[in-house]
Amino acid sequence: MHLKTLMPTGVVVDEEISRIRFEAKDGSRTFLPRHVDFVTAIAQGIVSYNPLKNGIEQEEVFMACDEGILVKQADMVYLSVRRAVMNNSLEVLVKTIGEEFKKAEEERKISQTALARLEVNLTQGIMHLKSKR
Asked: In whole angstroms, what is the distance from residue 41 CA to residue 71 CA?
């Protein structure tokens, strides 16, 4: 299989793999070669996979991923996420999910709230101007 992990800023992983494990919204999954084509929503968590180098399975690699979508089609696995962090230490990745991703999500919610307030104020201003005519 070939794994291609995509973020809005670019490609994070693009390599041959023998196996991928991930946490979907409906439970944990493992895909091996010849697995049926599949599409699922990815939950925030750790994705692990085994790279293949010259046909030899390598040591498991870990990646902290934000929510996203995984598509398995033929021998391709596409993983599209908002954020992904690679590290050799599982402890660091778990901490990343627990702190950095949650902080970024809180900041996103604050920004959305501010934008919603601006939209309401703009709409009220326009309505006020229309009523003055």
From this structure: 9
